[in-house]
What we know:
Elements: H1 2-21, E1 27-31, H2 38-45, E2 56-60, H3 64-72, E3 78-82, H4 83-91, E4 96-98, E5 100-105, E6 107-111, E7 126-130, H5 135-146, E8 156-160, H6 163-171, E9 177-181, H7 184-191, E10 205-209, H8 210-218, E11 227-232, H9 239-258, H10 260-270, H11 276-283, E12 287-292, H12 293-310
Parallel strand pairs: 1-2, 1-3, 7-8, 7-9
Antiparallel strand pairs: 3-11, 4-11, 5-12, 6-9, 6-10
Helix pairs in contact: 2-9, 2-10, 5-8, 6-7, 7-11, 10-11
Amino acid sequence: MNKIMTLLAAVTFLWSSSLLAQKVDKIVIAGPFASVSHPVFRMIETGALDDVAKKVEFHLWKNPDELRAMVIHNDVDFVAIPTNTAAILNNKGVDIRLLNVSVWGILGMISRDENLRTLKDYKGKRIAVPFRADMPDIVFTELLKKEGIDPKKDVELVYVSNPIDAMQMLILRRVDHALMAEPAISMALRKTKSFPVSVIAPDLYRSVDLQKEWAKVYNTSADVPQAGMAVMGELAKNPHIVKRFNEEYAKALTWYKSHPKEAGILAEKNVPMLNAEAVADSIAVVNLKNVPAPEAQKKLEFFFDVLKQGDPKSIGGKLPQQSFYYSAQ
Length: 329
């Protein structure tokens, strides 16, 4: 019996050592231009995953349709993703597991009218909204309904493909109000010389913080689990690589928050549509913290349940299974 136990221990040790020594040819990480992706730029710049991959690439997705195509076609290993989109894909049978939630507050209103302080003040207004039926729109419409505003009758929602398009509509004065995600808000303020402070009256103002509205109407905290990192397919079966990714993403997020100027420069280098100064501005106002998926599960399920009550399709019809929340255990 002792010999068998010794043999099993030896086999386990050799298997573990082989796994630790394993180095894949390439890791592909996909993400949007938004803040959730920015720590990945730091990881690639510093070679943080050189011990587990010969090459690490970042692929930009510009809208949810591009994201879903990448994921469904197995073109990525790790993906920066809105939490509800991850839930939808998981419920459709896609092999995706949430690693963490890092974005807890990125949505806000921007307006030419400094007197708009609550969502109720937007009744009767024409508002540009990116990503129809996806994260920003879903959160916004649920909040409108909680405030007694009918999104179909009491406001005019002008849907655009992404926050950059919403920003352009504001700059071109095709709309006076928009729902946007950082860093697009900070970019719009910079482009119109509205931030930090204009010598003359600013063209645009930061308006309603959607996270504060969420806290008010649902009697909870302003931590809204909006986006994080997920692992795809076969790579989820390699706990060592996933562990190393989690470790380095957490380190990179800490660096990102404490080095706004350098982080802005790095973000613009990787995504030229971004503006370094605006990214630096945004870091001061977004709510970023790395929370492992199992630790975020309670808040995620509350969030998903709210979305499900509004429209079951917004999370794929049901709460994700327990296996959706990646755990190394």
